[in-house]
């Protein structure tokens, strides 16, 4: 299958089966950056770009497994205390996007690097950005054989190889490493600590829904939290949204109904099917809830528009007022051109292979019921990539069932942080597993908010959450240094 054919099939699949797509898990949203804090740019001279000659396949010994590709990583040396002092390394594990903007957006690292004298490392996930095997994105995504090396286990092994290389190159074998990630990257951080405890002394896993696999978390969980967010913001807003779906379908069923809807919602192109509008609105509401960051709080913005519509407005006019409140009224936003980005393609592959998060919608939400259908999902993935998803593989390889019993016995030094306004928090670890695998959550927090840059306007509960995380990380490092010192003074101890 050629690259352009893959993109065409993927676009068709996404358009036809939006209800079964798994929401993006990026720490920052793709839409309306103006709704969130503008990151303070990191001086480009502080961040250096490097490439590591990475092995294509870490788990086989066939000749093709030894093929290599250039994997990108970034380093900020500004705050590092140096190898002689065994100063720590903070490693941000890139997820389903290029790594270019991570030094700016993941402000937690640079905010806290000075107090730790930490080296900051950002490692790009294979198949994203400039870390693409087979020489080009076209070849890498050519067919299921070339894209088959694109999975989380290979990514974790990549990170291990890069970190080993960095420590060796900088003569920093005794520098403790803490891995940090958000959302899918948060899952990677927690799994890295479990799979490679000799390389990372701890992990901060922000908004990591590691329990949203294999029906551990109810399928309805994500959209039940979205519904709760809107209901808590405004009962009238919640009811208006709840009632709007039947009204949209009623209007669509009338003669020229799609034309009428296109006019009411100022669509970029005339609607060909009512599902395009329904999918857009559902995903807009969900994204606003997932990224309901202060000080704007997008859920409140949408409900402010809906509740603030002029007297006598009908339901659909109120709904459109919510769209305008969030997106602005300067141009069309609905039914516009579809951007099939590398993240769109990459995340679709990942969720069609191992990252099967069964998100569905049942009757007790503000949305139309739309249960997750594994059969339909498998059919779509087969059509797109020629492979079937493995819905049980994540729990088989990494675990998740009976997590408190299992990890409480052998795991250590992981922080699972969540904001309960985040729909993905329903699949996160919300209770302490042990004394050193801890859950830190905030009632009003949202997706990956704690690892974004601190601002003077941050509410006190967010400031406290970050302080707790820093305190725990400092305790890990203090304990590591004490253990290192004790070992150095034992006979026949070698640090190399």
From TrEMBL:
This is Lysosomal Pro-X carboxypeptidase. Keywords: Glycoprotein, Hydrolase, Protease, Signal. It comes from Phaseolus vulgaris (Kidney bean). Belongs to the peptidase S28 family. Residues 1-19 form the signal peptide. GO terms for biological process: proteolysis. One of its GO terms (molecular function) is serine-type exopeptidase activity. It comes from the Eukaryota. It holds the Pfam family Peptidase_S28.
């Amino acid at each position: 299958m050629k690259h352009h054919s893959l993109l065409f099939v993927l676009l068709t699949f996404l358009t036809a089966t939006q209800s079964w797509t798994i929401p993006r898990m990026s720490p920052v949203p793709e839409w309306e950056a103006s709704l969130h804090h503008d990151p303070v740019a990191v001086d480009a001279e502080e961040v250096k770009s490097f490439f590591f000659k990475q092995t294509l396949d870490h788990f086989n010994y066939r000749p093709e497994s030894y093929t290599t590709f250039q994997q990108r990583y970034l380093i900020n040396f500004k705050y590092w205390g140096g190898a002689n002092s065994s100063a720590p390394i903070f490693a941000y594990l890139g997820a389903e996007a290029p790594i270019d903007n991570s030094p700016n957006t993941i402000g937690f690292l640079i905010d806290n690097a000075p107090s730790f004298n930490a080296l900051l490392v950002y490692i790009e996930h294979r198949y994203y950005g400039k870390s693409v095997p087979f020489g080009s994105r076209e070849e890498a995504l050519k067919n299921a054989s070339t894209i088959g090396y694109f999975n989380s286990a290979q990514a974790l092994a990549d990170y291990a190889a890069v970190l080993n290389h960095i420590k060796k190159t900088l003569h920093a074998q005794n520098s403790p490493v803490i891995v940090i990630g958000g959302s899918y990257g948060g899952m990677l951080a927690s799994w890295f600590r479990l799979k490679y405890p000799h390389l990372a002394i701890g992990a901060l896993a922000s908004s990591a829904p590691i329990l949203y696999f294999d029906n551990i978390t109810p399928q309805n969980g994500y959209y039940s939290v979205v519904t709760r967010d809107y209901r808590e913001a405004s009962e009238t807003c919640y009811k208006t949204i709840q009632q709007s779906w039947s009204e949209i379908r009623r209007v669509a069923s009338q003669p020229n109904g799609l034309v009428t809807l296109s006019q009411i919602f100022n669509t970029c192109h005339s609607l060909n099917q009512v599902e395009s509008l329904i999918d857009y609105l559902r995903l807009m509401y969900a994204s606003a809830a997932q990224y309901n960051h202060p000080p704007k709080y997008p859920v409140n913005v949408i409900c402010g528009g809906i509740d603030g519509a002029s007297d006598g407005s009908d339901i659909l006019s109120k709904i459109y007022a919510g769209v305008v409140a969030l997106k602005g009224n300067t141009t069309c936003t609905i039914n516009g051109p579809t951007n099939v980005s590398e993240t769109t393609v990459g995340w679709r592959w990942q969720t069609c292979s191992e990252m099967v998060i069964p998100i569905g919608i049942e009757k007790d939400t503000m949305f139309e019921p739309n249960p997750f259908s594994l059969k339909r999902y498998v059919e779509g993935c087969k059509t797109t990539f020629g492979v079937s998803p493995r819905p049980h593989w994540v729990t088989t390889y990494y675990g998740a069932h009976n997590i408190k019993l299992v990890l409480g016995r052998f795991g250590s030094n992981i922080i699972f942080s969540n904001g309960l306004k985040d729909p993905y928090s329903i699949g996160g670890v919300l209770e302490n597993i042990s004394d050193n695998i801890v859950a830190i959550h905030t009632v009003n927090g949202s997706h990956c908010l704690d690892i974004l840059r601190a601002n003077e306007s941050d509410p006190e509960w967010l400031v406290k959450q970050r302080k707790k995380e820093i305190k725990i990380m400092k305790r890990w490092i203090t304990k590591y240094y004490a253990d290192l010192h004790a070992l150095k003074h034992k006979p026949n101890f070698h640090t190399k």
